[in-house]
Amino acid sequence: RRPKNFPPGPPVLPILGNILHLNLQNPLEDLEKLRKSYGDVYSLFLGPKPNVVINGVKAMKEAMVIKAAEFAGQPQDTFLQDVFSEKGVILADYSTSWREHRRFALMTLRNFVLQGRSCHRYMHRCSCSGKQLIDSVNGVLFSCAMLCHKLVCVVSFTGKTLCPQVMFHNVAFNIICQVLFGTRYEYDDEFITTIIQCVTEITKITNGPWAMLYDTRSSELVLRLLNEHKKTRVPGEPRDFLDCYLDEMEKKAEDSSFSEDKLIFTALDLLFAGTDTTSNTLLTAFLYLMNHPHIQEQCQQEIDRVLEGKDQACFDDRHQMPYIQAVIHESQRIANTVPLSVFHSTTKDSELMGYSIPKGTMIIQNLSSVLNEEGQWKYPHEFNPENFLNDQGEFVKPDAFMPFSTGPRMCLGEGLARMELFLIMVTLLRKFKFIWPEDAGEPDYTPVFGGTVTPKPYPMKVQHRL
Ligand code: HEM
């Protein structure tokens, strides 16, 4: 039974609860129908206890921003919490340890990636020509250059049509590996292929990335790299996230929340959360750009104009590229990559939109309902960069743009993800034209639902521009 003044919801069946109200292969349409019947805040029984689903900008802001501390908990009575006594950031309850680790991860990402304070020099010698090709201190830029090099090889040596899935997963995985472990893997490396397969399988389980984060194959990887780091590190001269964490452990008192176990789980969180999300967004962006060639051309005109005479793009160039910014944000809106966010829970008895929600209730944020909410967007149901442009052609970001969620638990990789999306898209669109192959039939935009949403696999034809 629903508690007193609890949000309304569909009638509950014994044992099954409301499970029959949802198509578990893709519940998003059913969740939208329930919103029409029961309003922006409603309840669902997915087990013996009722959960609350939050929809639309207004309710989302009241819960996640205005009443942030009350809605930032993590369900503590799930199977997962029982299995894993230690957690990284994602599954950690709203606690001092979560706060310390989140702050530390944000600061390290900022220093290493966004401000480019990396001690690494990344170099690549082409296996075909033997020439030293790429040399960079910024891991994200290095990965962009590697991706371009890979495409040049594919375009020159094969039939010019490729399946971009593996390519985009590799680039996102390598970027986060560089930040965490100061290492990267070749595109055909057997190890990277296995781990990426594991990441993508896991994220197809509903709410999966968060449900199966700590797969043993990946934990073994982190443990091996941690042991190697311990042998080669110079204290006070961190090369990457692992070194920074080890430095921090030495600085802190013995009873601090920093420990080697915690380090492994935190690194796994970043590895998983940072791979499939960015790559699926890129896959969606290129699917739409190939099938909207006029939008792709307009991006290329802006890139050519702003980068004229420059070797490569840098993140600051985004301020001169309102159209590209609009296209990237629109791709994120349409991609709807993490539609149900990470499940939260209430940290105390709370009120939301006039309803009472007891402490410990599981909260499902339906981000999808915000990203295509009517009244918030000029064109809520179509791919149109105008959603992010004003009448003067300037880039504007509406309040309803929440693919990273909002509030104190919002994605901590947002800065890195935005840098990756910008640099990868600008670098690729500058060099190549992406074409939907003539024999590929009509594009199928239907997404495959999971903890992260993916476009169905598709082919891509690539041509040199310059
Ligand atoms: C386009 C790419 C990305 C999208 C759409 C995305 C989206 C999200 C969303 C919706 C959440 C849940 C926030 C909440 O609980 O309210 C989240 C959490 C998180 N994301 Fe991302 N993410 C992306 C990229 C990344 C990257 C690159 C990293 C790693 C560097 C990352 C690391 C995390 C972590 C650690 C959390 C948990 C934060 C916490 O609980 O305090 N994400 N992300």
From TrEMBL:
Gene Ontology CC terms, in alphabetical order: endoplasmic reticulum membrane
One GO-annotated biological process of the protein: organic acid metabolic process
Tagged with keyword Cytoplasm: no
GO MF annotation terms: heme binding; iron ion binding; oxidoreductase activity, acting on paired donors, with incorporation or reduction of molecular oxygen, reduced flavin or flavoprotein as one donor, and incorporation of one atom of oxygen
Keywords: Endoplasmic reticulum, Heme, Iron, Membrane, Metal-binding, Microsome, Monooxygenase, Oxidoreductase, Signal
Co-factor(s): heme
Superkingdom as given in the UniProt entry: Eukaryota
Gene3D superfamilies (UniProt xref): Cytochrome P450
Keyword Oxidoreductase: yes
Bilayer topology: Peripheral membrane protein
Binding site for heme: 411
Subcellular location: Endoplasmic reticulum membrane; Microsome membrane
Similarity section: Belongs to the cytochrome P450 family.
PANTHER family: CYTOCHROME P450 2F2-RELATED, CYTOCHROME P450 508A4-RELATED
Protein's name in the database: Cytochrome P450, family 2, subfamily X, polypeptide 9
Organism: Amphiprion percula
